[in-house]
Structure formats: C-alpha cells, structure tokens
Design brief:
The chain is an alpha/beta fold. Among the domains are: 6-51; 136-236, Periplasmic binding protein-like II (D-Maltodextrin-Binding Protein, domain 2, 3-Layer(aba) Sandwich), CATH 3.40.190. It is 38% helix and 22% strand. The protein is globular and about 55 Å long.
C-alpha cells in the first residue's frame, strides 16, 4: 500500500508545492502518545507567548533625554526580564516627522508641549494618555576657557559676540524657547544674524564645547553633562515652562508594554535617575 511518496499538485517541474498523502494509522492512540501531543502543544504555546513578551519596545525621545533615558531603559529591563527597550534620540520635531511617516515607534517623549500637541492633532498618539513627566530650564552657555561670560541677553549684542548657536526653531524645541525669550526681550532681530542653526540641542552643545561659537542656548541638563568644556553663563526666563510630555503611539502593537514603560518613567526610581541628570519634577 502506498503511504508516503509526494503527489504533485501540478505536473513535475511546475515549481509548486507538493502534498504528502498518508494512510490513517492502524494503531489507536495510546496514553503516552496523547501526553506527547499535549506536551508539544503546551511547549509551542509557551514559545509563542515568550516571543511576544520579548518583543522590542521602541522609544523616540528628545535629544536632551539621551543620557537619562539610557539609564532608565537599563533599569526598566532589569525590572522586567525579557523586555528590550530601543531608543531613537533626535530633535522632537524630527521625531514627529518620522512617526507621521510610519516609523515603527511605541512611545514618544517630546521636549515641548507644541510638538506633542501636533502629534495629538494628527492622531499619532492615544488621546488622553499624554503625561508631563519632567521639567527643564533654558540657559546660555559659553566655552569653559572663553572670555568673560555674558550675564544677560543684552550682553549677546556687542560685536565681539560673533556666532551664537541656536536650535532651528521650526523643528527644535530649544530653538523655539530661545526665539520666544528673545522676542519677548525684543532682541530676536538683533541676535538672529549671529545665529548658527543646529539640528538638535546636542549639536548646540557640541558647537560650544568645540569653541566653534561664542555662545549657545541649551537646557541646563545638557550643560551639566559637559561641565568640563562648557559653563553656564546665565539662566534664561521662558514665558512657557519647559515641560516634557510622554505618550504611547496610537498604532503601536505593543500597547501594554508602552503603557508599562510610561508608568515606569513616572515612578520614583526613574524620577530619581532624571533628577541625577538635573531634571526637575513637572
């Protein structure tokens, strides 16, 4: 009796799949065979669940969160074995553009409210889920070995201050805070010609650290991580508080994990990490 040779579904050489026909077993299933079958099903189910639990969580976060969020990601993975957090750091506006174009992201953390407002208007984040998790301050920095540091915005006007690094206001939150502060002081038109545009707050920091500019506008937390190369000249008052919101992405297949990560960011242990890097509570 024929029991195992493949029977082509199409003529030989057609390149299609073949089907194996087998005769029913003449032996009834034994208790042992049933046990093996059930064990195989349980193991297969366990593997599927394990794989789903171990799926990576992708977090797009403002560049100024780089150091703190890396530590938070490590702490989260330790507390949640099997979880893996991947980060994408850039200017908040750039991250928003990526998400709008379909980038696979689960959580978005912005350095300003305006960018998160845009994400919400485009229905990219889940309605009613955004939370402010940290606060920062705007400061002017200069090279640590530079000349006499300015003490106010007015001190940026003299000709000896030739180049000032500022995040591009259209896409970089620190640039918007900077422009707003200068406009309120009625100095934007005088400072703008000296502006060296930067794609993120970290690029502003790099320009000043390498003494390629005379001064730059960054967050207090950024200045703190390179205190050996830059120094804070003065704090700039902002009309809008520098609050950072975080929210899960609406299209994320990792909804539960995203919510769990956000809850962890709000927890005392994660807030302690943020405080270590100079962030304040919202």
């Amino acid at each position: 009796m024929w029991t195992g040779n493949p029977v082509p579904l199409r003529p030989a050489g057609s390149g299609v799949f073949t089907r194996i026909l087998r005769t029913p077993s003449i032996f009834p299933p034994t208790p042992m065979s049933r046990f093996v079958a059930r064990t195989a099903v349980v193991l297969a189910s366990f593997c599927v669940v394990s794989l789903s639990q171990a799926a990576d969580l992708t977090v797009s976060a403002a560049a100024s969160l780089t150091n703190a969020f890396k530590d938070i990601g490590t702490a989260y993975e330790v507390q949640n074995p099997g979880s893996k957090v991947l980060f994408n750091f850039a200017a908040s506006g750039v991250l928003l553009q990526q998400i709008a174009k379909g980038a696979p992201v689960d959580v978005f953390a912005s350095a300003d409210q305006e960018t998160m407002d845009q994400a919400q208007q485009q229905q990219l984040v889940k309605a009613g889920t955004r939370r402010n998790f940290v606060r920062n301050s705007l400061v002017v920095i200069v090279p640590v070995d530079g000349a006499a540091a300015p003490k106010s915005l007015q001190d940026l006007l003299p000709a000896k201050v030739e180049h000032i690094a500022i995040g591009v206001p259209a896409s970089v939150p620190v640039g918007r805070y900077t422009k707003g502060a200068l406009e309120k002081a009625q100095l934007w038109s005088q400072v703008e010609p000296k502006m060296i545009g930067a794609s993120s707050v970290r690029q502003v920091l790099d320009y000043v650290a390498r003494s390629e500019v005379d001064a730059g506008f960054v967050y207090l937390t950024d200045a703190a991580i390179m205190s050996d190369k830059v120094k804070v000249a003065f704090t700039v008052p902002t009309e809008t508080p520098v609050l950072y919101p975080i929210a899960p992405i609406a299209s994320s297949p990792q909804s539960d994990e995203a919510s769990k990560f956000i809850s962890f960011v709000m927890s005392p242990s994660a807030q302690a990490i943020l405080a270590k890097y100079g962030f304040a509570k919202p």
